[in-house]
Design a protein that fits this description.
It contains three helices and four strands, in the order E-H-E-E-H-H-E. By secondary structure, the protein is of the alpha+beta class. The protein has one domain: Alpha-Beta Plaits, CATH 3.30.70.100. A four-stranded antiparallel sheet has the order 2-3-1-4. The chain is globular and about 35 Å long. The protein starts with a strand and ends with a strand.
Length: 96
Amino acid sequence: MIRHTVVFRLKHEQGSAAEADFLASAMILKTIPGVQAFERLRQVSPKNDYAFGFSMEFADQAAYDAYNTHPDHVAFVRGRWIPEVAAFMEIDYVVL
């Protein structure tokens, strides 16, 4: 199992309609085959300046690779992520 996580900060004003629209648009990722346990998260720690996170799981590397090249994921990254995300950090985990 691979747990794919990303924390990020948007270019949009906090609480704005643009922020809400971006977060709603991310639900397309949940529909991609192989995505399990998709979550949109609000980051609450004062130890960093990221505002949100996404977390999802994949059964194996093949499922994760298929997600990365899926047209809906590619379109989301090009059309929403790149123009609207100010900063991010991505971490992928496997269970020890």
